[in-house]
Design a protein that fits this description.
two-stranded antiparallel sheet, alpha/beta, 260 residues
């Protein structure tokens, strides 16, 4: 049985808001998706922004076969105490956990902890990333085994990796984010990073858009009005009709398969 550590990137308050709206936390979404591939997994879950037991978890990091660090609504350049706690915990993980899958916010934390840089992107992904294209390095990387060279994926991000850590290799890009996925090694740790969310369904992305509708219109200004929001949701609903679940999540399967 493989033992995994799942790191929750959202603050406790954000997860409470999710729960009140009937939306799964990112950790719950990840557990559901992993169970599609294997029932023979043991999980521990930690939230480095809020858990008092963080030092105890650090002492057990060598016991895990792998770690998955998921998404968050945070922006890493805001440099709050909660964000600094996550970066410092990631540095410890990069010393002691052999295999890390870092998804969206997780990738941004991993990159920052390893000396790279994340900044606000010129554009954004609201529920979906279109035409992610795997480059030659990605085509030869095990994370993309049996993946189509060009694909769409659930995604929700306003920031992107601007400077790669030392020895990091970009594996895929699209028009919005130059770095849609990457691989790098730090110490003895292999980090596979994805800017998009293979573990989250489009249905949940629609729920998140509806949940964040006012912020997306008034603060983020990515939509002009509610009609814009409805049109975008209709576009994502069309994507649901043509999406194959197995193909959408194959990166998770490939990561699990390479665990020692």
């Amino acid at each position: 049985m493989k033992k995994l550590l799942i790191v929750e990137g959202n603050l406790r308050e954000e997860n409470q808001s999710f729960s009140e709206e009937g939306i799964q936390t990112h950790t719950q979404s990840l557990q559901d998706s992993l169970s599609y591939y294997s029932k023979d997994l043991q999980y521990d879950i930690v939230n480095p922004s809020s858990d008092d037991s963080l030092e105890t978890v650090k002492d057990k990091l060598l016991n895990y076969d792998g770690l998955i660090w998921g998404g968050s609504s945070l922006n890493i350049y805001n440099d709050t105490p909660e964000i600094r706690r996550q970066i410092e915990f990631m540095k410890e993980c990069q010393k002691k956990v052999k295999n890390i899958l870092a998804i969206c916010w997780g990738m941004q934390v991993a990159v920052t902890a390893a000396g790279g840089e994340v900044k606000k992107a010129e554009g954004s992904h609201i529920g979906i990333a279109n035409e992610i294209t795997i480059n030659e390095n990605g085509l030869n990387h095990p994370i993309y085994k049996n993946k189509e060279k060009r694909f769409n994926s659930p995604a929700f991000n306003f920031d992107e990796v601007k400077t790669l850590p030392q020895n990091a290799v970009c594996l895929a890009s699209n028009k919005i984010n130059k770095v849609q996925s990457l691989h790098f090694k730090v110490n003895e740790t292999n980090v596979w990073g994805l800017q998009y969310h293979p573990e989250i369904t489009y249905e949940k992305m629609i729920s998140l858009i509806e949940f964040r509708k006012d912020r997306l219109i008034e603060n983020r200004k990515v939509f002009n009005d509610e009609k814009d929001v409805k049109n975008h949701i209709s576009f994502i609903k069309n994507e649901i009709l043509i999406t194959d679940k197995e193909k959408r999540m194959v990166e998770l399967k490939n990561w699990l398969n390479q665990l020692d």
